[in-house]
Design goal:
This protein has one domain. 36% of the residues lie in helices and 23% in strands. The chain contains 3 helices and 4 strands. The chain has a 4-stranded antiparallel sheet, with helices on one face. A hairpin with a 2-residue loop joins strand 3 and strand 4.
């Protein structure tokens, strides 16, 4: 993983999702160099995406997220996984120059299976 370039790319992608699927439903913020938070408009939950040397983790903050949050979260996370797939497999970039390579070739599909409304 090329953490700096990947972090910039994913931060820009996530910032662009603030109006997805409805206007002003997400608010993106970056708390440090390795974490991006997407807070939902009803404050019932947040998505926390961390980039570490070990990989990418996605966590939910919120003990009882609303049903609408859960549906919108699945849209965001499926899109995020699509972007990661494009980074890993898209274009004619050699493996050593990619922002992200996977140790487990089906890791993205496993992650997609864990999404609430996939």
């Amino acid at each position: 993983m090329k953490a700096g370039g990947l972090r910039l790319y994913l931060n820009l992608y996530l910032m662009g999702l603030q109006n997805t699927p409805e206007k002003k439903c997400w608010k993106a913020s970056q708390s440090d160099d390795s974490e991006v938070n997407l807070r939902y408009c009803d404050l019932s939950g947040s998505i926390i995406i961390q980039l570490t040397g070990a990989g990418i983790t996605i966590d939910r903050l919120g003990s009882s997220p609303s049903m609408k949050y859960l549906m919108h979260e699945s849209i965001i996370l499926n899109g995020f996984l699509d972007e990661l797939h494009a980074i890993v497999d898209g274009g004619d970039i050699s493996a050593e120059n990619r922002l992200l390579t996977l140790a487990d070739s089906d890791a993205l599909e496993k992650a997609r299976g864990a999404i609430s409304f996939s």
